[in-house]
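Q: What does the assembled structure look like for these inputs?
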Amino acid sequence: MSATLRIEDLRVGRRGGHGPDLLRGVDLELRSGETLALVGESGSGKSLTGLALLGLLDEGLELRGGRIGLAGRDLASLAPRARRALLGRELAAIFQDPGAALNPHHRVGPALVEILRHRGGLDRRAARQKALRLLADCGLDEVERIAASHPHRLSGGQKQRAMIAMAIALDPDFLVADEATTALDVATQARVVELLDRLRRERGLGLLFISHDLGVVQRLADRVALMYAGRVVESAPAALFFAGPRHPYGRALLAARPTLFGPFERRAPIAGSAPGPEEIGAGCAFAPRCPLARATCHEVDPPARALADGRTLACPVAEEGG
Amino acid sequence: MRSAGARFRRHRGALVGVLVLVLVTMAVLLGPALLDRPPERQDLALGPTAPSFAHPFGTDYEGRDLLARVLAGGRISLLVGLVATLVSLVIGVVWGAVAGFVGGRLDRLMMRIVDVLYGLPYMFFVIILMVWFGRSLVNVFIGLGAISWLTMARIVRAEVAGLAGRDFVLASRLAGVSPLGALLRHVLPNAAGPIIVYGTLTVPRVMIEESFLSFLGLGVQPPAASWGSLLAEGASLFREYPWLLFFPALLLSATLLALNFVGDGLRESFDPGEARR
Amino acid sequence: MIRGFLVRLGEGALTLLVIVSLSFFMQRLAPGGPFDHERELPPETRRALEAEWGLDRPLGEQFLGYLGGIFRLPPDLKRSMTRPDFGVTELIAPRLAVSLSLGLVVLLFSLVLGIGLGALAAARRNGFLDHAVMALALLGLALPNFVIGPLLKWVFAIELGWLPESRWVSPASMVLPVLATSALYVAIIARMVRSGLVAALGQDFVRAARARGFSERRVLLVHALPAALAPVIAWLGPAAAGLAVGSVVIERVFDIPGLGNTLIDAAFNRDYTMVMGAVIVYSAILIALNLLADLLLLRVDPRIGERR
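A:
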């Protein structure tokens, strides 16, 4: 069975309706069994998108508009309680710092058992057995010892695996991984990425992989969505994206990527810096830094359009040029 | 990044607290001079009377004007609060600074002593000392100050230990500044914020403790009075003469609340993160 | 862990020893003595009394003798100097029972009510209930218990006649003293729990718990509360010490025969052995309580054990 998660025109701003939108109409589509990578520099709104999707925005923020379609419902218009009840079952999440995201007061095993009993309805015995199975499934050895440990006793990789075990405990359709590998060292990072990919394949998990690390994204993603200043400016099948993004921002970003073997000169940095939400005018947010910008770019923020090759692109100039 | 002063001014409770403290302090300092009746003048024929135009706070059992007594008592209460806090400040800062700056085994030993002292009913020691060595105001200062330095020592130690390893301190040491010089000139000034905050919060605690001693008859001795001893008197007579309890309680509580508000406000303005603890 | 416990136990014994020595010598250095009455005793009577109590021997020898008495089983606390027909243990025991029961009831009541109110305030943070609870807590902080005590007594015992004026004889007689003593502690705990919970609610692990779909109530009570309780537990030792002192006032206001006033009376009368007995009992109980709080803290926050 294939489920689809469809985010349309998602808008987030400070609570009370004051100030500009921080997310300025985000569109995303993710099918189960598929990995969608959400990339962009910090402050581009990718983590905010993940939190808005989960309904876990900070208290000072609120959803200002948009739809989050999942299995025929619009999550954005559900009552908070009903929405919370979907978390874990249909939509789960893991976060950046596994050290901070695991409760230091709870042992790993009992924390898993709590999920399985209170949310999954298993009895104590069944929950215990399943907890150990989940830990083993997530590639942990010595599961008995790990289940009996407090998080501070575990390594970073073990913590993130335990986090993943808790996230998939109720067999969700979709998993939001918010910078889930950023805090890990490179070797551990690779293994966790491998685990996520395996879980996607085996469980038909739809993975929303939020990261600023293009190297990891390249290994994992089926599709890439590039965010800039609170909008998705280009989304494309991963192979196409890495072969050559069309949006000027994407091209600059990829060109700026340090490559191990390429000539040093190719690392052209992007001039200027990303605008804060207050600084965005009427036109395209990237226009002030864009080498291809025309007069209209400063006046009208271009809508995203689907192209024939499977991309969506919010840049008429690049569209013409391609 | 807003300055501490600007953050403090945004803290409404703290501003009200400052206003109350200024009013109380002025009343207490100037009031007795403006009133034409000394607080100890008795009028046994008058006896206790309810608040009236002549005696806004009423009179006590000996016919003394309660307003005059409350204002005079406030002087002593505030004085005890300030002096005892100062004593505790000196002990706590020295203890914490030495432990934090020297570090190592001495640090662990000194802080363990603080841990252990934390759990003891040190007020009993003050009580017993007052009984044995006399109930003078100086003993109140020393006794209360000597038992109120523990938290200050912990706070100063944490600050100093954190600052001692920082680059600007190391740089000054490399430039030939002595350890004591580095401590006094570079470390302690940077720890001033938490010291001021906690010092402010110590004052109301010490004032409560003083009132406690007075209630037991061990604080300020008659005919002098503090808010604590007035309260003690009021508490025993308040069924017949409720104003004897009401006015001292009002002033003491208002002052304690104001001090707590100001302390909280200072804490939030010096360290916004700290306030969440 | 066991080694840490033994170290703490040793520290506790050392603390007790220091307190005993300090009290012993300070008491002797202080002016006045147990046989100073308004009427001067004849010199020979006085000498005979001092010889009987061993006060004529060198101070060091007296001290060692006293120490020998307390560090054995069962400890010998000697007889009371002002009531020589009674042993100190015998005089202290019933009063200790009263003080201990008052203290425990107050502590339990304060914990339950304080944690409950603090959690309620945190759950409704910045709402009306939060402001109401915190305003009440401020009142508890700013009103000394010797003001609250008489007020409660007046309203509920005298005007309304619902409750006895108390002498600590029946459960009903315990209500007012417990309320008056608890006010401060409920206020402190509620404030601590509220601010601890609000801080914990901003932590990543709470967001992770929410992401697992737990109800907000469960997130608050199961996932955030342990973090908020650690400071409360760490504070229990000092709280018990403060409680011991605070109950002196309550014992006076409500006419309860507790240990606190025994100690103060003994200090006034220079009843050397009674003072020492009360000091030892208080210190031993509080040291034990601190040890208990330490162990409890280790259970709530296992990271602490490894940091030390």
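Chains B and A do not touch (no CB pair under 8 Å).
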